[in-house]
Design goal:
The structure is a single chain. A five-stranded parallel β-sheet has the order 2-5-8-1-9. The chain has a two-stranded antiparallel sheet with strand order 3-4. It is globular and about 65 Å long. Helix content is about 50%, strand content about 10%. The chain is of the alpha/beta class and about 325 residues long. Helix 8 packs across helix 10. It folds into three domains: about 160 residues, 3-Layer(aba) Sandwich (Rossmann fold); about 70 residues, Helicase, Ruva Protein, domain 3 (Orthogonal Bundle), CATH 1.10.8.60; about 60 residues, Arc Repressor Mutant, subunit A, CATH 1.10.10. The chain starts with a helix and ends with a helix.
Length: about 325
């Protein structure tokens, strides 16, 4: 994280576009805030658009605004976030979920600093510092034809990777203490963290990263005297996910194969993420929407990762049996 801080200090004073990469919940929005607050634009607004939270037809209006009568329900003229963030910073969260037709318009405004509202003909000039964030592998999305290559290179001027919590476990005690203190002030309760709880937290993989740790800390304060170690953490530590051992790339490196350390790290991270996603899907009987909520990623990102990792659904007979049990329960 010190490397992240150093990069933030170097890029903050410039207007360069920054791409923040990292899993969901690692703190990409906090890094974006740090860049904005340390920049000459700090007195202006930092606005955020979650590109995965809006339907495709509304996302363009949210970004670029619309003219009165541009579509059904457009009863008045509305400025978009690019217009409202003039002289400030705009955070485009989950940039990998922007549909292809809209990517061309985004590329134009990044290159020329101008755009037109939905239903409008005139050009609007804007001076906005753009920070993009994603939990997807955009290079893989480019290869799959799901993301424009020219837009990717336009965004990829400076890339800051925020490591997942499992790669910086030494921060867990300090983060836990911070979240516990904040929650105790919020709820007016005092809760001590048992040494066994801290040991379990240090061993846990934290697939939801810092956001998951924050939520668990709040739950501990709210429940007070209830057991401090959540059942999902206990279950995970009791049965480590498949694939947590050395990967093929790591084995090749140990055996003297020509494999770089960065490649080993990327492959290990992919293997760990695949195992966590597969385990979560199995636990919720392959309810993809529920699994996406548990892992704090968008539904689109969940579908992409299922395809990207080649995950297979449950056997047909299991699905039929589960459906039959649900029908029987409803009948009862």
């Amino acid at each position: 994280m010190q490397g992240v801080r150093d990069l933030v200090a170097k890029v903050a004073a410039t207007n360069v576009t920054v791409l923040l990469c990292g899993e969901s919940g690692v703190g990409k929005e906090i890094v974006a805030r740090a860049i904005h607050d340390s920049s000459p634009r700090a007195r202006k607004a930092l606005l955020k658009v979650n590109c995965a939270a809006l339907p495709d037809e509304l996302l363009e209006s949210e970004l670029f605004g619309h003219q009165k009568g541009a579509f059904t329900g457009a009863y008045r003229e509305k400025p978009g976030k690019f217009e409202l963030a003039h002289d400030g910073t705009l955070l485009l969260d989950e940039i990998g979920e922007i549909p292809l037709p809209l990517q061309a318009k985004l590329l134009h405004v990044l290159q020329d600093g101008e755009f037109s509202r939905v239903g409008g003909d005139g050009l609007v000039r804007t001076d906005v510092r753009v920070i993009a964030a994603t939990n997807r592998d955009l290079e893989a999305a480019v290869r799959a034809g799901e993301f424009r290559e020219d837009l990717y290179y336009r965004l990829d001027v400076i890339t800051i990777r925020i490591p997942p919590l499992r790669e910086r476990r030494e921060e867990i005690p300090a983060l836990l203490a911070y979240f516990m203190e904040r929650s105790q002030k919020e709820y007016g309760r005092s809760v001590d963290v048992a040494p066994a709880t801290l040991r379990a937290f240090m061993d846990y993989a934290w697939p939801g990263n810092v956001r998951e740790l924050e939520n668990v800390s709040r739950r501990m304060v709210v429940l007070g005297s209830a057991p401090q170690i959540p059942p999902e953490i206990t279950a995970s530590l009791a049965s480590p996910p498949a694939g947590s051992g050395p990967t093929g790339a790591a084995t090749a490196a140990v055996c003297g194969g020509p494999v770089g350390l960065k490649r080993i790290a990327r492959q290990a991270a992919r293997d760990a993420e695949r195992a966590v996603i597969k385990d979560t899907l199995d636990r919720v009987h392959w309810n993809r929407a529920k699994a996406a909520r548990l892992l704090h990623i968008s539904y689109k990102a969940m579908l992409y990762k299922i395809v990207d990792y080649g995950l297979a659904g449950p056997p047909p007979d299991t699905t039929i049996r589960s459906a039959g049990v649900r029908r029987a329960r409803r009948g009862a």
